[in-house]
Design brief:
This protein is α/β, with parallel strands linked by helices. It contains 5 helices and 5 strands; from the N terminus they run βαβαβαβαβα. The chain has a single domain, classed as Rossmann fold (3-Layer(aba) Sandwich).
Length: about 140
């Protein structure tokens, strides 16, 4: 279904993407994975329902940091869904920066897939709230 909330994952980790693509449907959640932010941007409409899980580690094809991507997507209106970052553990400064810019959460890698359904449900709920607010504005 076109309006079904979808977990969009951008990560250059092929193993993680493959595992997520199999895992989320088992949790009754649609999932699309992308090796680069460019492919995500070419495929997903800015107003698509769901959430984005964005790996802080940029792909080898990109010179943009994940935070730069986030700023560009959010602040220029190219993305309306909540964003969850994944990054190396212990980088508190980066986590704080992501959250202060409006990220929904920051997850330390390695991320266990079993820990994701709850935060994704929260992201879907946040997306629903944002959509309702935009309709009343």
């Amino acid at each position: 279904m076109a309006n079904e909330p979808t977990v969009h994952i951008v990560s250059d980790d092929a193993s993680f993407r493959e595992s997520a693509a199999k895992f989320f449907p088992l949790m009754f959640m649609a999932c699309k994975t992308f090796p680069t932010i460019g492919l995500f941007e070419q495929t997903v409409r800015p107003d698509s329902p769901g959430c984005l899980i964005l790996d802080m580690q940029p792909s080898r094809e990109s010179v943009e940091s994940a935070i730069d991507v986030f700023k560009r997507l959010i602040f220029h209106g190219n993305l309306q869904m909540p964003v969850i970052f994944m990054g190396k553990g212990g980088d508190i400064q980066t986590a704080v920066k992501c959250m202060s810019l409006g990220a929904l959460d920051y997850l330390e890698k390695p991320v266990a897939l079993s820990s994701l359904p709850q935060i994704v449900r929260e992201a879907f709920a946040e997306d629903t709230r944002r959509r309702a607010k935009r309709q009343t504005d």
